[in-house]
Design a protein that fits this description.
Layout: H1 2-31, E1 36-48, E2 64-75, E3 86-95, H2 102-118, E4 125-130, H3 140-153, E5 157-161, H4 170-186, H5 198-208, E6 226-231, E7 254-256, E8 264-268, H6 275-278, E9 295-298, H7 343-356
Parallel strand pairs: 1-4, 3-6, 4-5
Antiparallel strand pairs: 1-2, 2-3, 5-7, 7-8, 8-9
């Protein structure tokens, strides 16, 4: 019974957080202020290509494409506080790259910000909702990236997370709708199937499922569905944000960016989108009985991430003539072993290597 009481307490807390976060998402979706863009992002399950007239060996060797779903809400040009005209768009980022990581997410957001600039769409703040997947959305590198976006676009970002095991919603239905249409098209018997990879999927979906109209009024349910399809290629994974893990990451469900010259974020255990919080008046929060205040967290950047290797000039060598020093294995700017800073260990290790050689 003692163990049962402990498990019950954790379960009640889990249910409370799940219901609270779901309620706050619905509230911010229905009341987000002018100049705000609301985003919901998540990866759909990989789509497996299975043409109707596949040969027998293809059954055991099927190709897959990854799909990231990004639903956005924003106010229309004629929207105001008295008459809200909400425009909804669904963006699908499709790629042959099946690695669902932070770099994939960053690449997709770069596409999103680029097309906002091309369409001359301005925003004062960006609210993002997703699940708490540590490899994609909820880790210290994402927090550091948020501060970088804040400084680059001068737009505050608030990333909110659904409770673990929850967060299912319309973005899952949007991904399922696309995959169902693709499967129906693949089941058509043709001598030359035109759906073969991510590029062909984007071309077919853009031609048949995209509805690009200027006026969409989704708040009343009578507007057209606007879908944008993007082919994701050449994801750059060479540059990575590297900082130490933030303690208690799994415990908070809301992160606010900062434009401080240092990498700082604000964390909150629960999200809140009451009227004062939606307008940035955090001290006047109406849910103080349930929601705690914001905690400032400084991101500790890993020093190994900013160390640059000193390039040797042509014809220059850092190897000694007698190959008799352990320092021959180290170039300036590279952290190798902590023993180098200890004279005794350095002497012992150098002596061993000398005799081995």
């Amino acid at each position: 019974m003692k163990e049962f009481y402990q498990k019950t307490e954790h379960y009640v807390q889990h249910v409370h957080v799940a219901r609270w976060q779901d309620e706050q998402y619905r509230k911010c979706r229905d009341t987000f202020p002018l100049g705000t863009i609301l985003s919901v992002v998540d990866f759909a399950e990989n789509y497996t290509l299975q043409p109707q007239n596949e040969i027998q060996s293809q059954y055991y060797h099927s190709d897959q494409v990854s799909i990231m779903v990004h639903i956005t809400y924003r106010h229309g040009p004629e929207s105001n506080n008295d008459k809200r005209i909400i425009l909804k768009e669904t963006n699908f980022y499709i790629s042959d790259d099946r690695c669902h990581d932070l770099h994939y997410v960053q690449h997709c957001f770069q596409i999103f910000y680029k097309q906002l600039k091309e369409r001359d769409i301005q925003m004062d703040q960006h609210w993002i909702w997703s699940d708490g997947c540590a490899g994609q959305f909820k880790n210290s590198r994402v927090f550091q990236w948020l501060t970088t976006l804040h400084k680059k676009y001068n737009v505050p970002h608030i990333w909110n997370y659904f409770e673990t095991g929850h967060g299912k919603g319309e973005h899952d239905g949007a991904g399922a709708c696309i995959k169902t249409a693709l499967r129906r098209e693949e089941m058509r018997f043709t001598t030359n199937p035109h759906i073969r990879d991510a590029q062909s999927i984007v071309q077919w979906c853009s031609a048949t499922m995209s509805n690009r109209t200027k006026e969409q009024r989704t708040s009343t349910g009578t507007g057209n569905v606007v879908r944008n399809f993007w082919h994701v290629v050449d994801i750059d994974r060479s540059c990575s944000y590297t900082c130490n893990t933030v303690q208690g990451t799994r415990g908070f469900h809301s992160v606010r960016s900062s434009n401080n010259p240092l990498f700082e974020i604000w964390t909150r255990k629960l999200a809140c989108f009451c009227d004062p919080c939606s307008n940035g008046n955090w001290d006047e929060c109406e849910s103080n009985d349930w929601v705690d205040g914001w905690d400032r967290v400084s991101l500790v950047v890993d020093p190994r991430a900013v160390v640059e290797t000193t390039q040797l000039e042509e014809g220059q060598s850092s190897i000694s003539a007698d190959y008799n020093h352990i320092s021959d294995l180290v170039q300036p700017g590279i952290y190798m072993f902590n023993l180098i800073s200890n004279p005794f260990l350095f002497f012992l290790f150098n002596h061993v290597i000398k005799h081995l050689c």
